[in-house]
Amino acid sequence: MATKTVSQIFATQKLPVSFEIFPPKGDLSQEEAQQVASQLAPLDPAFISVTYSAGGSGNSSRTLEVARLIQRDYDVSTVAHLTCQGLTRQSLAKKSAHLKEAGIKNVLALRGDPNPEAAPGDFEYASDMIPQLVEDGFCVGAAAYPEGHISCLDPDIDVAYLRGKQDAGASFLVTQLFFDNQLAYRFRERCHKAGITVPITFGVMPFLSKSQVSRMIFMCGASLPSAVVKLLARYEDDPESLRAAGIEYACAQLQDLATHGVDGLHIYTMNRPQVAAAAVAAIREVL
Length: 287
Ligand code: FAD
Prior knowledge:
The protein is built from 11 helices and 8 strands. By secondary structure, it is of the alpha/beta class. An 8-stranded parallel barrel has the order 1-2-3-4-5-6-7-8, surrounded by 6 helices. Helix 7 links the parallel strand 6 (172-175) and strand 7. It binds flavin-adenine dinucleotide (FAD). Flavin-adenine dinucleotide binds at residues 51-54, 81, 83, 110-113, 125-127, 143, 149, 151-152, 158, 161, 164, 174, 176, 203.
């Protein structure tokens, strides 16, 4: 089976379910990445997206290696994330060439979080990089924020920028995590009103600990519904039950999204195959 573009996947599959993984960092070896991939592939994801870190963890070169490994060894289509901060047109052309050589057909075009130490580049926003990637032959996706990007206070303006990503050539959107599906449905309506017609796949991340939740909400501005706050309070001193409650909550979110006719579901697996397996089983139950 040849690897597919995400556009082909959306054109031929009802409710594609995809996973996000991150490449090895520090001492985490390629063998461990292989192990994660070997447990995710049998769950039959529509595609696996592989994150990219331009700064801190220094695992950017591994994105391509891990994506190539997944395609070669498990015949699963991949999406390579790529951030544009600090990239010049020339360095982007080089990255495109490497991705193509590796057989990667899909790229998630991102700006990356603000990094004052990044060298000045040719691209200010993700949308600035999309046309070149499209020209280079990739099926390009972009990030979407059901509650608006954390640094944009007006959700309508944020959706207008999102429309700009579609106009620049993005052919699919992947959302940031959220804990309240009602916000996702309102966001979908705003997108439709703004003329966004490309498929939007909704990203869900199970909460596994209180510290992870607080990191997430401050990093991405997701709001916490009282149901989540109550679970965090109830299982404050019982990490195992909290993890189970987090996975159960995410599964219920995914089932609700599936029955509300979303275009696709994207599971932030955090490299934990058991999280992905629970999510896939829950989605299958309602389909
Ligand atoms: P942009 O779309 O460029 O937006 C950045 C900010 O500028 C927003 O506030 C937006 O409202 C505003 N804006 C956008 N366009 C314009 C414009 N034309 N004029 C004025 N303002 C504008 N980060 C990583 O480092 N590696 C990853 O692998 C990664 N994967 C991600 C995957 C998903 C699905 C998501 C949702 C996020 C991911 N991120 C990743 C995080 C992302 O890099 C940050 O959220 C970053 O701060 C914004 O990236 P963006 O591509 O959405 O930026």
